[in-house]
């Protein structure tokens, strides 16, 4: 697979559901607060909802990015892996090595075994 396809697959499988979920939560909460609750604090309620959705989305990212890494890097040579790593950091799909955000990745035992095989 070429690098662009791997990056696109990462964006589609990791970020597309995450962004869709956060936006959906914001819109649904906005509608609910205005039409059902008939609240004067719609903005505050939506803000809280979106913050919670982002936290849930972060857990999604933490789990799915590991799956994508295992898949994508298993398809490449060492030299291609360095290029993919740089591209993925450049577009914000993954964080650079040593970043505190990498510590939030959720690695299962199976993911660790798959990663070590590559």
Number of domains: 1
State which percent range the strand residues make up: under 5%
* Oligomeric category: single chain
Radius of gyration: 18 Å
How do the strands and helices of this protein lay out in sequence?
Blueprint: H1 3-35, H2 42-74, H3 78-91, H4 109-117
Helix pairs in contact: 1-2
Description:
The protein is mainly α. It has one domain. The protein contains four helices and no strands. Helix 1 packs antiparallel against helix 2. It is elongated.
Can you give keywords for this protein?
single chain, 118 residues, mainly alpha, 4 helices, 75% helix, elongated
Q: Short summary of the structure?
A:
This protein has 4 helices and no strands. The protein has 118 residues and is mostly helical.
């Amino acid at each position: 697979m070429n690098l662009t396809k791997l990056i696109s697959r990462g964006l589609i499988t990791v970020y597309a559901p995450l962004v869709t979920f956060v936006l959906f939560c914001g819109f649904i909460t906005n509608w609910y607060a205005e039409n059902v609750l008939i609240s004067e604090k719609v903005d505050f309620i939506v803000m809280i909802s979106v913050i919670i959705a982002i936290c849930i989305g972060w857990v999604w990212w933490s789990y799915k990015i590991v799956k994508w890494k295992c898949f994508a890097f298993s398809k490449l040579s060492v030299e291609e892996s360095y290029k993919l790593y740089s591209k993925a950091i450049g577009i914000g799909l993954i964080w650079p090595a040593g970043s505190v955000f990498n510590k939030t990745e959720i690695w299962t035992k199976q993911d660790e075994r798959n990663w070590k095989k590559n």
